[in-house]
Design goal:
Blueprint (H helix, E strand, L loop, with lengths): L3 H18 L13 E8 L3 H14 L3 E7 L4 E7 L6 E10 L6 E9 L8 H16 L1
Antiparallel strand pairs: 1-5, 2-3, 3-4, 4-5
Helix pairs in contact: 2-3
Length: 136
């Protein structure tokens, strides 16, 4: 005999799974536990650091360059985790340092999903800085 209730539950579960696959995920407000920031000074002028900051996203294996806001000297990119491909937004703001040959970087990494990042955002910043320093 055909077990209709079991069949109906199975079909319902499949339909729900398909609906969830095609439902867009909206970005959540950043939790204090799902972000990291760091400031550092680079011994190079901003004119030299800006192109390298853009190139660092392309060279970094998990990075992706998005855009540069020339008016505020801000480079925007993202990072994806290796396995699940979760996205973290990374913002790098460049400001002139105390002398003409120095640049102050303000780097911020924010996870789009979840309440905790388990150190992932600080890892993003560390890997990005290593990649940037290799280009300078």
């Amino acid at each position: 005999m055909f077990a209709f209730p079991t069949f109906a539950r199975t079909v319902s579960a499949i339909v729900l799974a398909i609906a969830l696959l095609f439902t867009p995920v909206t970005a959540m407000a950043a939790s204090p536990s799902n972000q990291a920031s760091q400031q550092l000074t680079i011994d190079a002028p901003p004119e030299q650091v800006l192109p390298s900051a853009q190139q660092a996203f392309a060279k970094w294996s998990r990075g992706e360059y998005i855009e540069t806001d020339e008016t505020s000297n801000t480079v925007i990119g993202l990072s994806r985790t290796n396995f699940f491909k979760f996205v973290d937004d990374i913002t790098v703001q460049l400001t002139p340092g105390d002398s003409p040959d120095k640049t102050q970087l303000n780097i911020r990494s924010v996870g789009r999903l979840g309440e905790k990042d388990f150190g992932g955002n600080q890892r993003n910043i560390n890997e990005y800085v290593e990649t940037l320093q290799s280009l300078l």
